[in-house]
Amino acid sequence: MANKQRKLPLYVQIRNKMVHNIQDGIWQSGKAIPSESQLIEQYNVSRTTVRQSIRDLVQKGVLETRRGAATKVSQVPNEEMSNPGVIHHELGTDMDVKVIRSEITDYHYFAKSLLDLPDEVEVYVFERVRTAEGIPIAYQQSFFPVPVGEKIKDIVSEAFDLFAYLGKHNIHYTNIKEQVSASNATTYEADLLGIAPGEALIDIQRTTRGMDNVPIEFSRTKYIPSSFNYRVEIGK
């Protein structure tokens, strides 16, 4: 169900669960963690997701892997590893999405430029309204290179978070840049959100890059202010 989706990619969710296991002493420093097969069964995810989670923690020095040996805890991670400095999320429960448009198009040149795609190349666009308890909270346009969009085109009507599904195809983000500003609802956006034209919206533009720093998504999401929470945490 869409209300079970999370903002973070699936492998990051599993990585954070591993971090908490170490921080809570369930997995102790110098000791082996459960095997890949055990983790797959425990978290009900693919082997690719488990390996990506482990690889991420190995790169951060938290876990240690050696050929032919069990993966061990190398050090206890700090709190910042599972608590990012910028936290934002939609407010409400029973989250869902309604697809307005899902197609491959030649247009949207600005989005293609942010995806490092030439003007003549097509791009996949998903236009959706995000809802909470059946009430619209945001209007969203998401743009993907066609090969990436093809992998999620069949689940855009049910997946609140598309990156959780991209993770199952071994497509993970390595960098996200967001720009937050204010805008006024157009007549079209107001009609979709059930508000008056000209009302203020929180406007978030996001560019996401994957492996090798290749752009995999550009999105623009416009939230009704009362349905969105944005918080910055710096320090302990």
Automatic annotation (TrEMBL):
What residue stretches are annotated with the HTH gntR-type domain?
8-76
PROSITE patterns reported for this sequence = HTH_GNTR
Alphabetized, the UniProt keywords read: DNA-binding, Transcription, Transcription regulation
Q: Which InterPro entries match?
A: Bact_HTH_transcr_reg, Chorismate_lyase_/UTRA_dom_sf, Tscrpt_reg_HTH_GntR, UTRA, WH-like_DNA-bd_sf, WH_DNA-bd_sf
The name this protein goes by in its record: GntR family transcriptional regulator
Q: Which organism is it from?
A: Halobacillus seohaensis
